[in-house]
Design a protein that fits this description.
It contains 13 helices and 11 strands. With about 300 residues, it is α/β, with parallel strands linked by helices. The strands form 4 sheets. The protein has a 5-stranded parallel β-sheet. Strands 3-4 form a two-stranded antiparallel sheet. The chain is globular, with a radius of gyration of 20 Å.
């Protein structure tokens, strides 16, 4: 399994130039059983990363371009009348996939955004009273533009809480952008990527990540960090218990990716900004990242 993870990481670096940390975080979300939110400007490689990941795990990929006229049934699927059989037939939506890219998710209306809540948490959709399970593994990569807010609908707290991690790819450096231009001539394209891990092996890796040991002292450290967000005067809404669980699962996945069968405080400290910041509602327009960095300095490390 160590070789499989190395091969998966190497496969993604063939198309994604210079984003080693972002790739690691995406694998943390995938193997931790969560979902990822990319808050980035257009054109930095979000779709390319999602397609490359789906191709590498030999999974089905679907892209959902969110717009204000998108309906919930456009996501989950709907029942259509079949005149030949004389009964309704279920037409699956794009959520019946392994890797789903929900592009510009904040351009969809709140009603449509809520269609993703059940499937992200319970891996099933309910249409006309009938629940249908989606394929496993199921991994959502959602994107939103942090700059342009015209015609958008901010994700509610319940939706944001479903994402294990929130991260940004950012602009490449000059050397990385030059490498991108050179790759246009002789580089590897997404269609050229060969699967290096099966879906069954992804499920096995998820199980192995869940078995990574987390000491009681480290769990107490996680709790103190989370509870500090609920008591801080600069925060209107702190981290929920779902966020507490997500932080431990992410730490287990990161430890496994780094070749350990136990998590350490450095795993938690590295992940806290990515797991906690998008779950907070600061008061008075304060910056969530700045608050979290202050809390990390104030909470004693075990």
């Amino acid at each position: 399994m160590r070789e499989k993870i190395d091969a998966l990481t190497q496969n993604l670096t063939l198309t994604i130039v210079g984003k080693t940390e972002a790739i690691r975080l995406m694998l943390v979300a995938l193997l931790g059983g969560g979902h990822a939110l990319l808050e980035d400007v257009p054109g930095v490689g979000k779709t390319l990363l999602a397609k490359s990941l789906a191709r590498s795990v030999d999974g089905k990929f679907q892209r959902l371009q969110c717009t204000p006229d998108l309906l919930p049934t456009d996501i989950t699927g709907t029942n259509i009348w079949n005149p030949k059989s004389g009964e309704f037939t279920f037409l699956p939506g794009p959520v019946f996939t392994n890797v789903l890219l929900a592009d510009e998710i904040n351009r969809a209306t709140p009603r449509t955004q809520s269609a993703l809540l059940e499937v992200m948490e319970e891996h099933q959709v309910t249409v006309d009273g009938v629940s249908r399970a989606v394929p496993l593994p199921f991994f959502v990569i959602a994107t939103q533009n942090p700059i342009e807010y015209q015609g958008t609908f901010p994700l509610p707290e319940a939706q944001m809480d479903r994402f294990m991690l929130s991260l940004s790819l950012g602009y490449p450096s000059e050397a990385e952008e030059l490498q991108m231009l050179q790759n246009l001539q002789n580089g590897v394209k997404v269609a050229d990527l060969q699967p290096c891990i099966t879906l069954a092996e992804v499920q096995e890796l998820r199980y192995l990540c869940s078995q990574v040991k987390v000491a009681t002292s480290l769990q107490q450290y996680i709790l103190e960090l989370v509870r500090a967000t609920r008591q801080d005067e600069e925060i209107a809404l702190g981290v929920s218990p779902r966020g507490t669980v997500a932080l431990q699962r992410a730490a287990q996945a990161l430890a496994f990716l780094l070749g350990r069968d136990y998590a350490i405080p450095d795993d938690v400290k590295f992940l806290v900004p990515y797991v906690i910041c998008h779950r907070l509602i600061p008061r008075g327009g304060r910056n969530a990242r700045t608050i979290v960095e202050r809390l990390l300095r104030s909470v004693p490390i075990p």
